[in-house]
Amino acid sequence: MTTALRPDRPPQDLRERAVAALTAARARTAALTDAVTDEDLTAQHSPLMSPLVWDLAHIGNMEELWLLRKVAGRASMRPEIDPLYDAFEHPRSERPKLPLLGPAEARRYAAEVRGRVVDLLERTPLEGTALLDSAFAFGMIAQHEQQHDETMLITHQLRRGAPVLTAPDPDPPAGPAPAVPEVLVPGGPFMMGTSAEPWSLDNERPAHSRETAAFWIDTVPVTNGAYQAFIADGGYRDERWWAPEGWEQIHRHGIEAPLFWHREAGQWLRRRFGVTEPVPDEEPVLHVSWYEADAYARWAGRRLPTEAEWEKAARFDPATGRSTRYPWGDADPTPVHANLGQRHLRPAAAGSYPAGASPLGVRQLIGDVWEWTASDFLPYPGFRAFPYREYSEVFFGPEHKVLRGGSFAVDPVACRGTFRNWDLPVRRQIFSGFRTARDL
Question: Is the pTM value of this prediction over 0.85?
Answer without folding.
Answer: yes
